[in-house]
């Protein structure tokens, strides 16, 4: 007849040492006092009787290894390889730098156009002011209206 330490009994039965200690405290499993570092010994007969009567209550269930398979999500097929990812990133960076270059080339032109437009606007204002000044003074109300509208431009 064999004697098991608590650790050996745990490995043999696939029940944790804590659960076996609970069964001992509850009086469901008999043990004898251990020596030295061994807390207690459990007789093989007592352990087998405990397993037959109460084993299912204490045993932790583990799935067999052959039924375990790596789960592969459908989403994994949507991912791209690192090489393709790097190519996409480099192409994106190339397009961004090209657009920035084109933008820098166009900015001076837009500044030049806005300056030209301001010059033309000032010329139009001076022409309008000359036309207003040419209106006879008896049309004072019309002159004031045109001057107000010219200031708002």
Fold topology:
Blueprint: E1 3-5, H1 6-13, H2 17-25, E2 32-33, E3 40-43, H3 44-58, H4 82-133, H5 140-152
Antiparallel strand pairs: 1-3, 2-3
Strand order of the largest sheet: 1-3-2
Percentage of β-strand residues? 5-15%
Strand count, sense and barrel status of the largest sheet are: 3 strands, antiparallel
| Distance linking N and C termini | 111 Å
Number of helices: 5
Shape: rod-shaped
- Tell me, rounded to a whole number, the average pLDDT: 80
> Radius of gyration, Cα only, in angstroms?
47 Å
The CATH class name of the domain at 3-60 reads Mainly Alpha
Q: Give the structural class.
A: mainly alpha
In percent, how helical is the residue content? 55-70%
Order of helices and strands, N to C? EHHEEHHH
Question: How is the CATH topology of the domain at 3-60 named?
Answer: Multidrug-efflux Transporter Regulator, Chain: A, Domain 2
* Level-2 CATH architecture of the domain at 3-60: Orthogonal Bundle
Multimerization status = single chain
Q: Spans with pLDDT under 50 lasting ≥5 residues?
A: none
The strand count comes to 3
Task: Walk me through this protein's architecture.
The protein is mainly α and 153 residues long. Among the domains are: 3-60, Multidrug-efflux Transporter Regulator, Chain: A, Domain 2 (Orthogonal Bundle); 113-153. The chain is built from five helices and three strands. A three-stranded antiparallel sheet has the order 1-3-2. The longest helix has 52 residues, at 82-133. It is rod-shaped, with a radius of gyration of 47 Å. The termini are far apart.
């Amino acid at each position: 007849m064999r004697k098991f330490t608590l650790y050996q009994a745990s490995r043999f039965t696939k029940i944790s040492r804590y659960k076996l200690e609970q069964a001992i405290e509850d009086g469901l499993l008999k043990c004898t006092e251990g020596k030295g570092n061994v807390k207690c010994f459990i007789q093989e007969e007592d352990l087998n009787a405990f397993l037959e009567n109460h084993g299912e209550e204490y045993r932790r269930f583990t799935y067999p290894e052959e039924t375990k398979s790596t789960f592969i999500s459908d989403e994994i097929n949507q991912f791209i390889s690192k090489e393709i990812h790097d190519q996409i990133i480099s192409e994106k960076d190339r397009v961004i730098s090209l657009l920035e270059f084109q933008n820098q080339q166009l900015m001076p032109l837009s500044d030049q156009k806005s300056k030209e437009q301001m010059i033309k606007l000032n010329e139009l204002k001076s022409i309008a002011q000359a036309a207003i000044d040419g209106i006879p003074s008896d049309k004072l109300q019309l002159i004031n209206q045109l001057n107000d509208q010219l200031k708002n431009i």
